[in-house]
């Protein structure tokens, strides 16, 4: 059984679900994406994504017209596996088509591109045995990139706030519960961490903070201070 946090940008709210591994992901079309498929190799109890990512999945799946095998979708930042600012940590990216033939992967790629629903569909030349697409959102805090995380400040709500909270918790700076809302506890934890690493303790997670925080937390493994409930 997994706890799922689904962010809806239309209402600026999170919705919480408890689902078994073989049950469909909330907001997914029919049974085309189960919790287990979304989880992949993650061993976390708490997973997250967005309504927009599920809607993009639904549109792609309907247009493709048959099953799309999902090899990798979600990881917590301390589990690592996809660099330091991966959209997989935000729960909005999918690597699919592993084990499929080249023709099938080309068709999946063309279908995902044609929907216009994904923010990024990676060129096939960069993904020789799979297809990657993601529904990233927000303006990256670091310039000259489309892949980074947006600036987080007091009052922010998103799965990127969940990454921030998750990273701080894993590093021993408690932000309290994982709720995706940048409130007083998250700000206090962020300021404490910023002071510890000689950054300006302004309680804003911008480019410099994201770079150092993600580099410190990505792939370090489950620590005693990780929150996972």
TrEMBL record:
<dbReference type="InterPro" id="IPR036365">
    <property type="entry name" value="PGBD-like_sf"/>
</dbReference>
<feature type="domain" description="Peptidoglycan binding-like">
    <location>
        <begin position="161"/>
        <end position="213"/>
    </location>
</feature>
<dbReference type="InterPro" id="IPR009045">
    <property type="entry name" value="Zn_M74/Hedgehog-like"/>
</dbReference>
<dbReference type="Pfam" id="PF01471">
    <property type="entry name" value="PG_binding_1"/>
</dbReference>
<dbReference type="InterPro" id="IPR036366">
    <property type="entry name" value="PGBDSf"/>
</dbReference>
<protein>
    <submittedName>
        <fullName>Peptidoglycan-binding protein</fullName>
    </submittedName>
</protein>
<dbReference type="InterPro" id="IPR002477">
    <property type="entry name" value="Peptidoglycan-bd-like"/>
</dbReference>
